[in-house]
Amino acid sequence: PKSTSTDSLFGWTRGPKGHFELQQTSGTFSIDGTNIDDDEFAKVRAVFPTSVLNKSQISVTDTHFSLTQAQKEEQTYQQKRNQQIERQKYLANLWETLNYVIILLSVGIFYLLYQKYGKRHPTSRFSSTETIMIPGEIRPATIGWLLQGRNITSNLLMATVLDLARQGYFNIQEEPPEEGFLANGKPTFSIKRMEKNLNEELKGWEKQIVSFVEQRIDDGHHKLHHIFKGTNAKVSSWFTKWKESFKKYVFGKNWVDEQSYTGCYWNIAVQSLLVIASIPAIIYAGPVGLIALFVTMFALIFSFLIIRRTPKGEEVYHEWDNYKEGLENAKAHSIPSNKLDKHFIYGLAFSLGEKELQNIITTNTDVMPVIAWISFSSNTSSVANVASSFSTLGATGATSFPGTSAGAGASASAAGGGASASAG
Q1: Distance CA 195, CA 210 (A)
Q2: Whole-angstrom Cα distance, residue 219 to residue 212?
Q3: Residue among 114, 224, 244 at smallest CA distance from 164
Q4: Which of 90, 181, 217, 322 has a CA that sits 20 to 30 A from residue 114's CA?
Q5: Taking the model in full, what pTM does it have?
Q6: For residue 70, how many C-alpha atoms fall within 13 Å in the half-sphere facing its CB?
Q7: Which residues contact 347 (CB under 8 A, 6 or more apart)?
Q8: 179/420 Cα distance (integer angstroms)
Q9: Antiparallel, parallel or unpaired: β 28-33 and 20-25
């Protein structure tokens, strides 16, 4: 009904500073807002005389309200808001500083623990020349565990089965490919228990394999990929027990410094706390806080680098690693035919690929290998056929045995039933 002068209009804004402005002109309010995010609010509070309203259409809800009250409330709000902004600035500066403190602590603690527990023993005195001479009589699975990062995989189990066959406890028969929609057309392999009694020199984890194969054969399973089918609950349960037995044996070889595990576990504990501490740095310091999070997470992941070999373990590792390199480059060497099966078993334990395993068999193309513990089918009549069959035999462990293989054949990626088990 009536107009009012500009000096009778009072207004306040609540919202992002610099993005929301209130102006008074000619008895009216003008509001401009720019770049206001969806999660931000913009409010306007206006106080003006009631004479500008039609009193017949309004009701008074607070008869004690006054301009002084509104001014005091808005002053209090602005004070609290300014205090909050100052606190946010303080926390941002604080956590930006703490961000770098966390980084220094993370790197420093990892370095100190690595120097105390994980620093490698000198290896300069060891030869680095590759060889195809087997360095000793260490069991394939045992040395494979050391060379493959202390992981217990299906390759180690398969290598042990074949090594037991080589010693006369089993005979392996090449069988025709299985039929079916998912069949790959490659030969399969059955296993037969021979009459040889268990030698007292066999280790407990080797005897466990012999007993388990006997039990599975008695249950009507003769194919290797059925005997050790990783999706079978009985097989998985047995593999867990066998894994613990094998783990106990390999740690008893004194190849790994068990004290280094102390440093590893300490680093895991401390870095985990620092990872948690870096989260507020992201909240208060913004993107710069991500640096601390990344550094502490990497330091946490690298904890296992602290685990080291003993001086004895380093010596054994380098001797056998040279032999592994020799098998990887088998085409450059001439391997006697009477040693092919043993080299193949070691190559399988070392997780060599399909091509590398075939190269071990085909290094001597003039002589057809005669291997007493495996009976090939009539179609396997050349060195190339033997190499292909051996490669398929190696891949059987990768696709069917419990655990995940680290390599061994083209079908390794199809491995099913369980996960790789780290002995570390």
Answers
A1: 12
A2: 11
A3: 224
A4: 322
A5: 0.73
A6: 15
A7: 327, 356, 357, 360
A8: 29
A9: antiparallel
Q: Which long-range contacts (CB under 8 A, 24 or more apart) does 277-285 make?
A: 277/98, 277/102, 278/99, 278/102, 280/95, 281/95, 281/96, 281/98, 281/99, 281/102, 283/95, 284/88, 284/91, 284/92, 284/94, 284/95, 285/92, 285/95, 285/96, 285/99
pLDDT in tens for each of the 424 residues of the chain? 566 777 777 878 777 666 677 777 766 777 777 777 776 777 888 887 777 777 777 787 887 888 888 889 888 888 888 888 888 888 888 999 999 999 999 999 999 999 999 999 988 888 888 888 999 999 999 999 999 999 888 889 989 999 999 999 999 988 887 776 656 667 788 999 999 999 999 999 999 999 999 999 999 989 888 888 867 788 889 989 999 999 999 999 999 999 999 999 999 999 999 999 999 998 888 888 899 999 999 999 999 999 999 999 999 999 999 999 999 988 877 777 778 889 989 998 998 887 888 788 776 665 566 678 888 777 665 566 666 666 676 666 555 666 644 444 433 322 233 333 444 4
Q: What is the domain partition of the chain in residue ranges?
A: 1-64, 140-257+308-422
Residue 170 bridge partners (DSSP): 193
Q: CA-CA distance, 272 to 26, in Å (whole number)? A: 63
In angstroms, rounded to a whole number, what is the distance separating the alpha carbons of residues 277 and 217?
56
Please, are residues 318 and 127 in contact by the beta-carbon 8 Å criterion? Answer: yes
> DSSP secondary structure string, 190-228?
EEEE-SPPPPTTS-HHHHHHHHHHHHHHHTT--BHHHHT
Neighbours of 300 (CB within 10 A): 19
Q: Which candidate, 403, 408, 363, 413, places its Cα nearest to that of 386?
A: 363
SS (H, E, C) 103-151: HHHHHHHHHHHHHHHHCCCCCCCCCCCCCCCCCCCCCHHHHHHHHCCCE
Q: Hey, how many other C-beta atoms are within 10 angstroms of the C-beta on 34?
A: 9
Q: Cα-flanking dihedrals φ and ψ of residue 32, to 5°? A: -125, 125
Rounded distance, CA 271 to CA 154, Å?
A: 32
Angle at 350 between CA 360 and CA 304, to 5 degrees: 160
Q: CB of 34 within 8 A of CB of 17?
A: no
Q: How many angstroms separate the CA atoms of 205 and 247, rounded?
A: 9
Neighbours of 16 (CB within 10 A): 15
CA 36 from chain center: how many Å?
A: 43
